[in-house]
Amino acid sequence: MRYEDWPKRLAEYLEEHNSTPFEWGRFDCCLFVCGAILAMTGVDPAKNLHGRYVNETGASDVLLEEYGEDSLEEIVAAICEREGFPEITPSFAQRGDVVVVNAPLSGDSMFHVCLGIIAPGGRAAVASPRGFILFPINRVIRAWRVG
């Protein structure tokens, strides 16, 4: 259940991490989104992940061990199901909802599947090397309603 003042808490969390650089195991897409959920609800869906990996391979190993999946989408689905966050149609995602985004992150033409949170203004915030970046809702491929 979201706190009564969750919009303020989410805005403060995003402001605090506006320029926090991506770092595996400290501020990656999963931990960024779980931190937003913690700010809005007091629940940390990543409580079993903190400090357990330092690179992409380690993250994959830990997530596979914890959730029996190696697809980011399926891991997020499992976490959201465990937390009671129902999956919704991506176009219905609203501020504070968890989303999976297919987006370019490194300035090249490659697209990456990333975890994000819908920020005020209706765009998906995703952790990146230069702090979080925002993507339009049409980049969202799956979504879950938080709390």
How is this structure best described in words?
- With 147 residues, this protein is an alpha+beta fold.
- Helix content is 33%, strand content 22%.
- The chain has helices at 6-16, 29-41, 56-67, 72-83; strands spanning 87-88, 98-104, 111-118, 124-128, 131-135, 140-144.
- Strands 1-6-2-3-4-5 form a six-stranded antiparallel beta sheet, covered by helices on one side.
- The longest helix is centred in the N-terminal third of the chain and has 13 residues, at 29-41.
- The chain is globular and about 35 Å long.
- The mean pLDDT is 91.
Question: What are its keywords?
Answer:
endopeptidase fold (from Nostoc punctiforme), globular, alpha+beta, about 150 residues, six-stranded antiparallel sheet
